[in-house]
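Chapter review: from sequence to fold.
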Amino acid sequence: MKQFRVMVLSVCLAAPFFLCFAASAQDAPESVDLNALVCKDIMRLTGEDRSIALAALHGFALGKKGQTQYVASDLSRISDEYTEYCLDHPQEKALEAFVKLTQ
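The token string follows.
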């Protein structure tokens, strides 16, 4: 009987650790390397995922120029130009294409 209690106590104490580990493995965010993406990868994204990718590209370009200010309509225009460019050049590196358009 004492061994059974020890086993039950051990399981009860260990369970939260296993559950936390399993949850953290599932909730781990996916890392994306902008240098590894080609235009086609960006164009395959939809909705919020594409918006986030474009925002990351805009942030990279602004940071590269040392700028902290932006005009939303300019960013929107650049996003549209980038989309058209990527549709015509699907195998080009996504980051290189964006930097080229924002210089």
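Two observations follow directly from the output. Confidence is low (pLDDT under 50) at residues 2-25. The helical segments are 2-27, 39-44, 47-65, 72-88, 94-102.
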